[in-house]
Structures are given as C-alpha cells and as structure tokens.
Amino acid sequence: MGQKNILYIGSFLATIIFMIVLYAIVVSIQWNQFSILIISIGLISIVITIFVVFSFKIKGIRDQGFPLEDERSIQIKYKAGYNAFILSWLLWLIIMIFTGFSGEIKPNWEVYTGLMGMSAIYVINYFILNRSEN
Amino acid sequence: MRTKLKEYRAKFNLRQEDLARKVGVRRETISHLEKGKYNSSLKLAFKIAKVFKVSIEELFFFDEDELQ
C-alpha cells in the first residue's frame, strides 16, 4: 500500500475515532454552566496557543528572508483541502446512512441540504477551473 | 524526477538556504527537490537553471521508466 493511501485511510479512520470519542464525551457530560465554562476556556486557550505558535513561526520565517508560501506549500495546501473535502464528505455520508437506519435519531434536513450545497459548489468550481487558465 | 542540484550547489558553494533565497522558495522545497520527492514547476526549474547558468535538462532529468 502506498504512502498516500496510508495517509488517506489513516486520516479518515482518525477522524471517525475522533468523532466517536467526541460524541461519547458530549453524551457523558452533565451539561451545566460550569462544564460549559470550562470547555469554553479550554477551547479559547487552544485557539490562542495555536495563534501564538503560528505567529512566532511566521515571524521566524520572515526574519530569515524566506517566503511564507512557495509553490510546494501552496500545492500541499490545495491537496490537503481537497482530501479534507472528500474525506469529510464521505464521513457525512456514513453519518447520513447511520441516521437513516437508526430509528431513534431524526434526520437533520439542514445538514443534508448543506451537503448537497457542498457537492454543487465542488462541481461548479471544477467546471469553472477546468475552463480557466491555471 | 532526478536532479543534479546537490552537485551544482556544491560546485557553486551554495547552501540550501542560499539557493532557496535566490529563487524565492522555502529551504524545504530545495531539500525535497534534491531528494526527488518533489517535481518543481517549470518556472522554478528555469529560475534554478538560471542561477547555475545551465539548461534545465542538465539539472533535471527523468529515468526512462519514469517517463513510461
């Protein structure tokens, strides 16, 4: 199996595991004001940490005179975006199938509409980019 | 894609950082090019060839089986 296939399958499985764990945590937590406050503080701290780390990294790159982005990093970004889109689409498909078979969970039509919109945007973008200079 | 980038870099006494600055890319890109893990764009290949004053074919080449 190629390195790329391992990456795709690995990230897909990791996302599924992450979602199951997240679901289990959300279900098990007794939601009250205190737990919401703690989770909010935790999330805000994570966002701030990521922001600080990235700004130091960006400053370091600027000081050394290297560009923040070059053709390889842009290509990686596009590939990551594409993979994320396809994998998240698949993930939502699995969730839709699961909710479809489960009698307890009601289908969420807003999510379904959003997914259809995502697919439509993808197809429209594909045709526009296919015709434009790239 | 294979490359003689490392040889030419040594010949011109350039570090990966120096070459990266000259052609306006990150050092990692030069490193990946040298290892054959990244296929550069035609534009970047031209820029690098210009630094070493050689043709692109002299710097970058494919094995026959890679072209099949």
Helix-strand blueprint:
The complex is a heterodimer of chains A (134) and B (68).
Chain A (H helix, E strand, L loop, with lengths): L2 H26 L4 H32 L6 H31 L7 H23 L3
Helix pairs in contact in A: 1-3
Chain B lengths: L1 E2 L1 H7 L4 H8 L3 H9 L6 H11 L3 H4 E2 L2 H4 L1
Antiparallel strand pairs in B: 1-2
The biggest sheet of chain B, with number of strands, parallel, antiparallel or mixed sense and barrel status, is: 2 strands, antiparallel
Q: What is the rounded distance between the termini of chain A? A: 31 Å
Report the mean per-residue pLDDT of chain B as an integer.
90
Class by SSE composition of chain A: mainly alpha
Helix-strand topology string of chain B: EHHHHHEH
- Into which percentage range does the β-strand content of chain B fall? 5-15%
Describe the structure.
The complex is a heterodimer of chains A (about 130) and B (about 70). With about 130 residues, chain A is an all-alpha fold. Chain A is built from four helices and no strands. In chain A, about 85% of the residues lie in helices and about 0% in strands. Chain B has about 70 residues and is mostly helical. In chain B, strands 1-2 form a two-stranded antiparallel sheet. Chains A and B meet through helix 3 of A and helix 2 and helix 3 of B.
Key descriptive features of the protein:
heterodimer, A: mainly alpha, 4 helices, 84% helix, extended, B: 68 residues, mainly alpha, two-stranded antiparallel sheet, 6 helices
Quick overview of this protein structure:
The complex is a heterodimer of chains A (134) and B (68). Chain A has 134 residues and is an all-alpha fold.
